[in-house]
Design goal:
It contains 17 helices and three strands. By secondary structure, the protein is mainly α.
Amino acid sequence: MQKSNRTIQELIERTGGEMRKEGYAEATVATYEKTWRMLLAYAQRNGIEQYTTEFAHKFLQDRFGSLDGLPRNHTQAEYFRGVCRLDDLFTHGIITSKRPLSKKTYVYPPEYCDIVQSYMTKRTTDGLSRSRLLCFALYLERFTTYLSKNDVKHTKHLNSEHITRFIKDTADTFNVSTVGGTISCLRGFFLHLKEIGETTMNLDVFLPNVRNTSEDTIPSAFSGDEVNKILSCIDRCNPKGKRDYAMLMLAARLGIRSSDITGLVFQDIKWNDNKIEFVQQKTGKTILLPLVNDVGDAIVDYLKVRPQFDSKHVFLRMQPPYSRLNSGSLYEITRSYMCRADIHIPPGKKRGPHSLRHSLSSRLLESSVPLPVISEILSHSSSDTTKIYLKIDISQLRECALPVPSLQFTPRGCDGQ
């Protein structure tokens, strides 16, 4: 659709009017109007009358520094949503639930654009998943930007010092998982450079080996009492609470991943057979789970108050626009109830719906359910994947504890008498 040619003032007035027509709460519109007034004042200071998406990006960047399209706190998110509503109308001509400004676009230095594109095309042909390709795009953006800033204008000029310094800087900034992913990406990228004749060196030999496996981590799990506290603090007297309770029950009782919960469609629920059957978004495999009574009751309770909106997805936003929820929304919902439950969550422990999946595994182990059975419930590819949960089976670990030998201590300078 051709973008509208409106002044910023006209776009603000039209957006507010369209949001009210779509049924947005007046308080929500008022919050957005606060952001729009700031945007308008910013435009007037810079002598700008016409709205463009680039101008919106510049406003957010100047307001928050290096935003990268990702709000990092409540205030930033509030401004971000307000600007996105303007950009909806500007770009699409309607108010949608989409947030086009949040779609990250990766920018590479001009001298590296073609090389990166050829590598990404190759990896796409190799069958890499979309999420994996997006990770590679991010890693290569960081790497090529680093090279450009250090006056390395061609891959033929790359040497071990450049690579070592970049990996060191990455390790100083990010966790071991990101470092490992970056090295994996660069290893394939360097091999590609040699294949297409962009370098004659085996640059991959300068990359360190970083051990980063699931065995290095401890799953974040909560006890049965803690999970019950989280579920019990949900107010099921209102539609939103009924929806949230149903989603968290799917995670806590059946161990369903967040992407599969938000992607659940009506045809996945087999009411007559008391089953839930769906294709997992992560693995592409079909899984069949029992629709236990408390989970089924929670879903039915939610469906009675679900917005009357024609959508195949079960879980929707409770206010206009009535679109499906995404995994990020479910994470925030889960995190808020965990905070409200007033349970002890030590630093580093995860607070999203996946921790409820871990908690289910922990309780199954405590009940002496065999690993192969747990693997089936969680739809793991093998029992080896499930073995990671043995680290949090405290009762079984206690049985493996070895006695501590007694030590005889003689103070220094004494002859033992």
